[in-house]
Give the backbone structure.
Amino acid sequence: MSLKKMKPVDVVIVGFGWTGAILAKELADEGLEIVALERGGHQTTKETGKYPFVADELAHEQRFKLYQPLKNETVTVRYNQQSTAVPYRQHGSFHLGNGVGGAGLHWNGMHWRALPEDLNIKSHYEERYGKSFVPNNMTIQDYPVTYQELEPHFTFFEEVCAVSGQAGNVKGVINPKGNIFEAPRNKEYPNPPLKSSYGANLFADAARKVGFNPFPIPASNASEPYTNPYNVRLGPCNYCGYCENYACYMYSKASPQTTILPALAQQDNFDLRVHCHVIKIETDPQTKKATGVTYINETGETIFQPAALVLLCAFQVHNVRLLLLSEIGIPYNPVTKKGVVGKNMAYQYGAWGNVILKKDQYLNPFIGAGAVGQVIDDFNGDNFDHTDLGFVGGAYIAQSQTGGRPIGQAQTMPGGPRWGKGWKESIKEGYQRNISMWSSGSVMAYEDAYIDLDPTYKDGFGLPLARFTFTWHENEITQGKFIAKQMEKIGAAMDAESYAFYAYDEGSNWDLKTYQSTHLTGGAITGDNPQNSVVNKYLQSWDVSNLFVYGACNFPQNIAYNPTGLIAALTYFSVDAIKKQYLKNPGPMIDA
Amino acid sequence: MKKKLNFKLLFSAIIFIGVSFILFLMFYTGPTSSLSTTEKTYSDEFIQKGAYLARMGDCVACHTQDASKSFAGGLALESPIGAIYSSNITPDKETGIGLFTLADFDNAVRFGIAQNGDSLYPAMPYPSYAILQDEDIEALYAYFMEEVKPIYQKNYKSDIPWPLSMRWPLTAWRLLFSQKVTPFDGDQYNGQDMARGAYLVQGLGHCGTCHTPRGIALNEKAYNDQNRDYLMGSNMEIDGWVPTNLRSDLLTGLGRFSEDDLVELLTTGRNDTSAVFGGMSDVVQESLQYMTLQDAHSMAKYLLSLSPSNPKDPQYQYNNETQKALSYAQDNSLGAAVYVDNCMACHRSSGKGYEKVFPSLAGNPIVISDNPASLINIILQGSTVKGNLNTPTAFTMPEYDWRLNDLEAASVINFIRNNWGNSANEITENDVKKYRH
C-alpha cells in the first residue's frame, strides 16, 4: 500500500513527547541519522506559550486546545467483557496529548521516582505478607529492573528537568524535611523546593500534628534559573497557576520544549516531521525484524520510512494499538489468559475531600503551580503495614495549589447555590476558604483489565480503535476507603470550620466524565520472559529485536506516583543499553 | 577699460573640468592590490584559518539570501535610493568569484573595487577591512576558493535608477572617506590581547559599521579609537533598532560590564543582565558564537578599554522604591498598571529579570538610551534571543503591538525608563506611532 518510500535512516521515532525527545537527543549525540514522526503539529513556548493567550482558560481547558482531537481518533471503553464498548467522545477522565511534546507539554510537573517495592511488588508482598496475600485474579508482576539500576537515570532526568524538591534520603542520610520513605538517592534535587502555599502549609502542620511526615511535592518547575545537562536554560517559576493544560511561558515547567528540543534543534542529523501519523510498523515476513514504519502525512500521502531501529514513543494506548494493528506479538486473550499485547491495563485511583477554613482566612489560590504543595508518603507503597488492611498498594495524600483559574478552579462553599446572587457570594467565600485535598493511589493489574482492538468503531483512516476493558476492583475500593480515613485525620487537625472526605463505594465504576489523571498504564508491559511481557528489561520487543517500546504502557501495574519520572528513567536505562550494547551488536539483548 | 569676464568661457571651463573629473573618476581607481598567491596549494590548516576569519567577518550574513545556498548572494540591502543586492562569492566560475585572482579578491575586500574596476557600494564594509593583514586576506581567499561550494546563481542588478546608479560618485566617496589600505599595526596597543581585540573589532568584526555614528556623506565618523566618536552608538536606526554605545560610559555604555560579562554576551547573546536583539542576534548566531574564547576575551578587553564618549556619564544607582510601590500597589499610574499586567511576570517588580533568561530593565543602557527606538520596537514587535550551540535555549518576548495603544505603550515605556533608578527623557504617543508597522 506504500506509495512513496523515503530514504532509509538509522532510527525512526514514532511519537514525539518525552520519550521520543530523550531518545532522539541521546541517539543524535551518537551520530545516528534520526527521523521523528509526530501526528500533531509543532508546539513551541514562543507560540503555544505566548503571553497572555497562554492564560486563556476557556480555550485550553473547556475547549481542549492542546489535546488530541477525538473526532479523528479516540478509544472505546467498557467496564467488562459482557458489555459493548462505546467511544470516549469528549475529554473527561483523562486528557490525551497531541503534537510535539505530547502530554509532556501540558502536564502539572509532579516529578516522582518509584519506590523500590513498586518495582518488585509481587515478590516483596509475597515475602512480607505471604504467598496468599495477593489475590488470584491480580496479575501483578515484578519489573525486570531494580531501583538501584534505575537510580542514576532518575537522577539524570531530574537534572534535565531542573526538578525543585527537598531530598529525604541522600545516600542513606535521612532528612525529615524531605520524604523519609524515599529510597536512597545519590544527590540532592537540582533546585530547592518551590515555595509552599498557605493552604499547603496548613495541611503540612496538621499532618505533622497527627504524626505523618509531610514534605514539598517534587516539582518539574525550576524554582531558580537553571541550566540543565544539555545546556538548556530554564527560567524560574513565577507561580502563575497555569501549568496543567498549558505550555509554560516562563520556560520554567519542564517539557521536551524547555529541556531537550532546543539542544536537539542544533543537530542536523535529526529531522522532525509533524502531521505524520504512523499507521503501521512494517516487518519482514517472519515478523522478526522491523523494516520501518508506514505513515500518512498532512496531505494524505501514504509514505514508507525505512529504518534500522524503530522506537515506539507514542502515548500508552497508541503504542499498544500500533502493536495490535501491526500484528506484532500475541494479543492478550482474557479467556485463555494467554498472550501479552494489551495485557494489564491499569490507571490511578483517588480519594478526595475538602476542608473549609474559618472566616477571614485567605488561600489566594491564584498563587500556584502544578506541583506547589505538600504531600505525605506515609501510606504509599509498602511504607505502612498492610497485614490486616486487605489491599495491595497505597497512595500519597496531597494538598496542592495548582492555581485559582476562574472557570475550573473557582469553587463555591459546600452545598452552595449553582446560580444567582447566592452563587456569587458562595464562590467568593469558597475561592478563599475551600481547600481541596486529594490522593493518588496505585492500581493493580487484573485478568479482566486489558486493551484490544474494538470490533465496531474505527478511526478516520478506517482502522479499528483501541478498546479499554477496565473498571475499579475491590482492592482499590478498599485502598480508597482506608486513605480517606487518613485524610480525615489531617482534616480534623486543621482547626477548620468543617471538612468532609470521600472514597468510592463498592461496586462503583470508572467515571469517564470527571478528570482524574492521564496516568493510564500497561498493555505493552515489561517482564523477564516473553510469556509474561511484551518487552524485556531494555524495553526491547521480545518478538522484533529492532523494535523498542516506551512509556507507561511498559508498567506491569500502576504505581501511586505520577508516572513521568519512572517512564523517563526506564527510557534512559534502555537507551544507555542501546548505546553500549545494541548498536555494537544489534539483535535480542536478552535471549528469550 | 575693464575686461569683461567671459562667462561663456568660464562656463565651458567649469564643464570641461567637471567632465574631465568625472571621466577621470570613471577610469581612475586609486591604489589597487599588489598581492599574488604565495602557495600553489593551500594547507587544510590555512583554509580552516580562512573559514574562521570568514566567520569573524560574518560574510555569510549579507552574501546569503537562501540559507541552503551559503555565499551565493542575492540578499537585498535596502538603501534610500533603491535596493542593492549582495553578490555571489562562491567559487562558481560563471556567476561567482571562481576566476578571481588573489588580487581581484583583495581589491574587492580591502580596496572596495570590483573586478571590472567599478567601485563597490560601501554596504560592503571594505573601509573596515582595509586594515586586514595580507596573510588573512590570502587565508580568506584560500577558504572561498577551496572549501566553499560553488553555486551557480547570477547576480542581480541593483534597483537604483540612472543617474543615481552611476558608479563614479562611489569612487569619489571611496577616495574621500574610506581608509587607506594599510595592514594593521598592533604595536600601538598594550599587549597582544589588546592588539588582537582591536584588530578584530576594527577589522573583520566591522563593529563600527553599525555602532559608529555616520557623518555627512553617511561615512563612519571614525574607523578606530583615535576619535571619541568611534563605537559611541549610532545616530541612525537600522530597521528601527539603535546600535548601542560600545564605549565604557557608565550609564549608557558598557562601563558596568566585566570582561566575562561581555564575553558571555558576545558569544552567547545573553548574560546575567542583558540580551542581544535586532541585527545583533544574527551577528551572534552567524559569527560571534564561533569565536574562540581567547579572541572573545581579546575583543572584550579592547572594547572595555575605550574611554567613555561622555566622560560625565553618571554612575547608575539602583533604587528599590519602585519594587515597594509595585508590591504594595502604591503606584496608580497607567504606566505602572500596564507594567504589572504585561511585563512584571518575567521582568519582576524589581525590574531585574532573571539572569540569562529575562534581561534586566533596571539600569539597562538600551532602556535609558536617549533614542528610545529599540525599546519601543521590542515592546511593539517582541524579540527572540536565538538559540546557539552552547546556549541552545531561544527565549522570546512576545509582541504587544496588538494589545497596547499608543498611550499605553508610551506610558509603560516612560515607566520603565524612569524607575528603579533609571532616568531618561519622556516619550510621547507620537514616538510610539512612528514604529507601528
User: Anything to note?
Assistant: Chain B touches chain A at residues 342, 345-346, 354-358, 384, 387-396, 398, 403 (CB under 8 Å). The longest strand of chain B covers residues 383-385. Strands of chain B lie at 76-77, 84-85, 383-385, 395-397. The CA atoms of residues 163 and 169 of chain B lie 11 Å apart.
